[in-house]
Amino acid sequence: MLRGSGLAAAVLLLLGNPAAASTLITGAMVYDGSGAPARQEFVRVENDRIVAIGKLRPHKGETVIEAKGLALAPGFIDSHSHHDRGDYADRAMPQLLAEGVTTIVVGQDGESSGAFADISKQFTTRPAAVNVAAYTGHGYLRSQVMGTDFKRVATSSEIQAMQRLLDVDMKAGSLGLSTGLEYDPGIYSNHDEVVALARTAAADGGRYISHMRSEDTGFDAALDELLDIGAKTGIPVQISHLKLGIVDRWGDAKTVLAKLDAARARGIKVTADVYPYEYWQSTLTVLFPKRDFTDLSAARFALTHLTTPEGMRLGVYAPDPSLVGHTIAEISAQRHEEPAATYLWLIQTAEAWRSAHPGIEPVEAVIGTAMAPEDVADFIAWPYSNLCSDGMIVSRHPRGAGAFAKMLRVYVREQHRLTLTEAIRKMTSLAAENVGLKGRGLIRPGYKADLVLFDPDQIADRATVETPGALAVGVSDVMVNGVLVYRKAQPTGNYPGEFIKREGQ
Fold first, then answer.
1. 125: part of which helix (H) or strand (E)?
2. Which single residue of 89, 277, 485, 491 has CA 20 to 30 Å from 128?
């Protein structure tokens, strides 16, 4: 597949030598990310940029990649990722590269690991194979200002202190504000606090992305809150991992989408990302909005209307790791008690363990089956939704290694809900647009050379709950910033990833 000025040219490409004169990709069906029909064209890369597209001839000494009819697309962009957890212990990020992901967007659900400038410096000092962009987490701002005294509404002076921290992050290049309003500490904030912070992000040209206050019983009120933030501040608002996680609302996706379309018609810049699974991963406590972990009736409600005992499988459990992989139904049978009582016991035991081991996270996590396949498909097909994983490297949930390949396998090849061009657009240019990334997501001269070469008929996810880290198949080559990072189903050991800052910063 490689040719050029002999073995030396091949070696330079495989090592990703940035000093190589240029690389020419020939014989590919080019899906440029815009949604336009594919065309068989040549693409030339010089340094970290795409410089020419068309019927091109190789330059003397130029490295050539012969695609032989494979699809060439912009590198896929994961607009909601937690793959930074673990501080990029494996910088090669093979789970991402195997499905063509070249950029991840972190700082999600209100979480940030530090000030934006510090995160940027840390990554730049030790980059990974993929690019990273980040939001500033509302929960991080609250923790910096309110410390452990967060189970209350913030005062005006505290909100102003959070705004100052956010403004510093915005000027350092943060994409905007992320919230996790179903989690501690964001769950204790009121609407005015979030609006004030969104205004700060909007003033600096940023965006707002939110795990809303509810994805189940309070879904409508939570969506109204997000839309009101967009209406009052003018900021683009993105719904994180759009879902209807309540049995009573299954089949109602089209009603939700009609509401979003109406909001867009009123001028609210609302978009969404979606992952292609009917189950989520979160904390055991997330289904208790009142945070009363002694409420048996609330536990029974959660296991009847929001999920089932068979549908709640432990992904992490520090107090007793032997329980990982088991469902609440299985554990309750071992304990000879009703599932709701076991649910409360698991939470109470985890909270006690956390108190006895401060600073050690994660303590617990659970995979919950809660969505209808038809709703997931409808949300994915919405013209303004892009794909995300909401995944991480070490997790029981397969989305961290399979979301993008599953998109192409299920919704393009098997269900025909999307054409290949539409699906690629949702994973590239639309994702870039929805989170505010410039110069990526399209195959055009001047754009960064983040590229994936794959077989549309063979690309498929292999990750399952039983084998969540199994690599996808069907991707041949992946290039990040003009450097080959994946070749013949193996990372090359190159780490050209950039920490992407908001345009103008």
1. helix 116-125
2. 277
Q: Which residues pair with 484 in a beta bridge?
A: 479
Query: Rounded to an integer, what distance in angstroms lies between the CA atom of residue 8 and that of residue 428?
Result: 33
pLDDT at 505: 57
Phi and psi angles of residue 30, each rounded to the nearest 5 degrees, phi first: -90, 115
> CA–CA separation, 61 vs 376, rounded Å?
49
Task: List, in sequence order, every beta strand (DSSP E) within 67-127.
Answer: 71-74, 76-78, 101-106
CA separation for the pair 351, 372 (Å, rounded): 31
**What are the structure tokens assigned to 354, written together?**
């956390």
Under DSSP, the state recorded for 135 is P
The answer to whether the CB of 447 falls within 8 A of the CB of 471 is no
- Nearest of 80, 133, 138, 147 to residue 111 by alpha carbon: 138
CA 103 to chain centre: 10
Alpha helices in 357-471 (DSSP H): 373-381, 399-406, 420-427, 429-435
**pLDDT for 416 beyond 70:** yes
Asked whether the whole model's pTM tops 0.85, one would answer yes
What are the start-end ranges of the H helices in 311-470?
Answer: 328-335, 339-356, 373-381, 399-406, 420-427, 429-435
What the block records as the tokens of 87 is 């501080």
Residue 61 DSSP label:
T
C-alpha 307, offset from chain centre? 23
Percent of the chain with pLDDT over 90: 91
Alpha-carbon span 422 to 430, nearest angstrom: 10
Contact predicate 493/128, CB 8 Å: no
Cα–chain-centroid distance for residue 132?
11
What pLDDT shows up at residue 88?
Answer: 87
